Amino acid sequence: MYLFGEHAVVYGEPAVPCAIERRATVTVAERGDDRQRVSAADLTLDGFTVEYGASDDAPDVDVPTPLVEAAMGYVDAAMATARDAADRPDAGLDVTIESDIPLGAGLGSSAAVVVAAIDAATRELGVDLAPEAIAERAYEVERDVQSGEASRADTFCSAVGGAVRVEGSDCRTLATPDLPFVVGYDGTSHDTGELVAGVRALREEYDFARDTVGSIGDLVRRGEEALREGDVAELGRLMDVNHGLLAALGVSARSLDEMVWAAREGGAAGAKLTGAGGGGCIVALDDGAGAETALSLTPACDESFRAELATDGVRAE
To answer: Is the N or C terminus of the chain more exposed, i.e. has fewer CB atoms within 10 Å?
Structure first.
């Protein structure tokens, strides 16, 4: 979940994502052959199971092809990098995925699944990677699957936990107060690659769009100061501005704007979309019950919940 800086981070500007206590769980077991079986029991979709090997043209599965392609792109690449780390290119694997993070909704679901999958698979194949090494491999997976349109922010945050600062290849953890996060979810998902490509096209065509991306970077730096000081009021004001800048880049949506305004009118110190946009989630800061109540009464909001900062990153259970 992004406190500040999504989209701008793709162009080397800083961003501050935060891990929250919603997790993806991946279990991996080595097989006796070279095939791979993937079961996704609960990804806020209907769930599916596929089994295939290197000689198969495509998985034989009775679900829409785009769904398989989207999900399997990340899983295949995660398993490939795990085999590479273990020097076991022909290892067959059974992979089971469960997640309580909405897919494609701005909460870093793909990063959480990829990070957990790499950790589970490398452990099963006898290799114990440090969280930072998992984060780097997971970033490479997301970059390849998203055709080069990715940053290290989501994967580093998922791997190490807490609040982090990412600027290019410089990734570090941040000390942060226990912030009163409230999340609103409209029940939809988005295509991250398409939204990132849209911002890139706008930035290449218009100087003001390039300036907007730079302004988001400046805002993130001010946000870091507010985090250090524990100034929730200032953080809220900056979140409001960040949402406006993202809307100017064309990545907000009517449902997101309606949830942002509902949270603000419910008493939140600030609210903004989180992630790539286009639908999905917003995050607000509110230490009372007003924002969550207001979101629950908003037709555009399918679900609202309080979210605690997750200080642990990837872990074996």
So the answer is: C
Q: Measure the CA angle with vertex 283, ends 209 and 11; round to 5°.
A: 30
Residues 95, 158, single domain; the answer is yes
Those residues of the chain that have pLDDT short of 50 are 45-48, 58-65, 67
Burial class (CB in 10 A: 0-12, 13-18, 19+), 138: buried
pTM of the model: 0.84
Q: Is the domain of 142 the same as that of 240? A: no
CATH number (domain holding residue 216) = 3.30.70.890
* Counted domains in the chain: 2
pLDDT in tens, 181-239: 999 999 888 888 889 999 999 999 999 999 999 999 999 999 999 999 999 999 999 99
pLDDT at 47: 46
Instruction: For residue 233, count other CB atoms closer than 10 A to its CB.
Output: 11
Does residue 301 form part of some domain?
yes
107 is in an annotated binding site: yes
Q: Is 104 annotated as a binding residue?
A: yes
Domain annotation covers residue 3:
no
Report how far residue 63's alpha carbon sits from residue 281's, in angstroms, rounded to the nearest whole number: 26
Catalytic residue among 56, 84, 119, 154: 154
Beta 93-99 vs 181-185: how paired, if at all?
A: unpaired
Catalytic annotation present for 231? no
The answer to whether 111 is a known ligand-binding residue is yes
Say yes or no: 154 and 214 in one domain. Answer: no
What angle is formed at CA 141 by the lines to CA 137 and CA 145, rounded to 5 degrees?
170
Residue 162 structural domain:
24-166
Give the C-alpha separation, 2 to 179, whole Å: 13
Closest by CA to 306, choosing from 263, 249, 245, is 263
Residue 315, domain member (yes or no): no
Of 131, 166, 201, the last residue of a domain is 166
State phi, psi for 231 to the nearest 5 degrees: -90, 90
What pLDDT, on the 0 to 100 scale, is given for residue 71?
65
